[in-house]
Amino acid sequence: MSAPTAIELLALAQEAARAAADLVRDRALRAVEVAATKSTDTDVVTEADRASEELIRRIILAKRPDDSFLGEEGDDVEGTSGVRWIADPIDGTVNFLYGIPRYAVSIAAERDGEVVAGVVINVPHRIEYTGHIDADGRPVARRDGRAITVAAPAPLGKRLIATGFGYDAGLRRLQAQCLVRLLPQVRDIRRLGSCALDVCDVAQGIFDGYLEEGVHLWDHAAAGLIARGAGARTEVAVGLGGGELLLAAPEHGFDALRVAAVEAGYFAPPGE
Length: 272
Prior knowledge:
Strand order of the largest sheet: 3-4-5-6-7-8-9
CATH architecture of the largest domain: 2-Layer Sandwich
């Protein structure tokens, strides 16, 4: 099998994500059933999560059977092609469960360890965000086919920052303490319940930054590429609670937000 281009991988990601979004949208019209819990009793999996991921896997692996696959709900698949797919069948499952119209399907494609294509679909609002690496090696970001860009520069005190909270009560306690220290330094904080959509909102200039501990690769692989294509920088580090911390912000304002996040205690102390 010849090495695929980023555009070819993006097209397949879009095909699978659109089919999954249609499935999730249909399931949202019915009674949503919790199928299982994961890390805590509040970390739920619905039948729609499982059905969405099964559909994504079936579409992608039918066309590229030698690829690897990492999904939130199913077992990892080890392939031989050098391409790995990273999928979140419903990012924002709690929103989906409660009927809050903010959740997404997210699919990214890695080639030789680098994310080169990704799509995030805002399911209730039918908005599609895409990112890919172009022929010159630069990331490109679009919303419904049109180029997007991050917000204009602003002082830290005028920046609107998005965040999220973990499922574990101990982690939420630490996050709340950090939030109390960060909140006076910025315009305000928003918590909307979908990492992928929050990072896409950084990409399209709605938010001036995003940070959260407790995220996973499937939450941000596609959205992170989209954000970088729109002029943002992303960093994955170790958070205060020992989990994966994601920080995303426009390149021009990234350093100032990072300093504020460090001072607020979001990052694990050096040496830990």
